[in-house]
Amino acid sequence: MTEYRRRVSVFYPNEYAIGLWAREDFVKKCQYLFTEGTTILDIGCGSAAIKRFLPEGVTYVGIDNTTGGELCSSPDIVCDAGSIPLEDKCAEVISAFALDVFKIPGAVTEIKRLLKDDGYFVFHGTKEYFYLNNVKRLIRDHGFEIEEEFRQVFKFPGITTRDIYYICRLR
């Protein structure tokens, strides 16, 4: 098994700031993913929270299977994650923030098709979810190698939660 980089951010959030802070912190701490000229496909974009924190020169494409509503802004592309109407190898970064693409038929095949050869796949979820679903094994079994594990620790009064981002490349 290949060793990979591990980093941690700790935050004492108020209930209204957690979602936006998490995305802003991720972009700041993982700037190497978001350089000028980069195209990022955000699969299951929801409210597109990351978009507002991306630097100039980064092309953002939000993809979701629904539009409108409180949790989903207007995605750039409305489609199923298993059938995305874009050209092969069109993105340097493909993200799935809290969307389990491993359970959506055809989604991993689409990610592999759309990701440039030197690109990154970013898979995000809670520590508990990743543990219960053995996500590290799923990532490896689907042909990806983890390069970095970035954790965010949220310390609320009486409870601590952890989010994990696995930053991966195709093997």
Spatial shape: globular
Topology order in helix (H) and strand (E) letters = EHEEEEHEHHEE
| Largest sheet features | 8 strands, mixed
Radius of gyration: 15 Å
Question: Segments where pLDDT lies below 50 for 5+ residues?
Answer: none
Give the helix proportion (percent range).
10-25%
Q: Report the sheet-strand fraction.
A: 35-45%
Structural class: alpha/beta
The beta-strand count equals 8
Distance between the termini: 13 Å
Mean pLDDT across all amino acids: 89
Enumerate the strands of the largest sheet in spatial order, edge to edge or round the barrel. 1-7-8-6-5-2-3-4
Task: Describe what this molecule looks like in 3D.
With 171 residues, this protein is an alpha/beta fold. Helices cover 20% and strands 37% of the residues. It contains 4 helices and 8 strands. It has helices spanning 18-29, 107-114, 127-133, 135-141; strands spanning 5-11, 39-43, 59-64, 77-78, 91-97, 115-126, 144-156, 159-170. An 8-stranded mixed β-sheet has the order 1-7-8-6-5-2-3-4. A hairpin with a 2-residue loop joins strand 7 and strand 8.
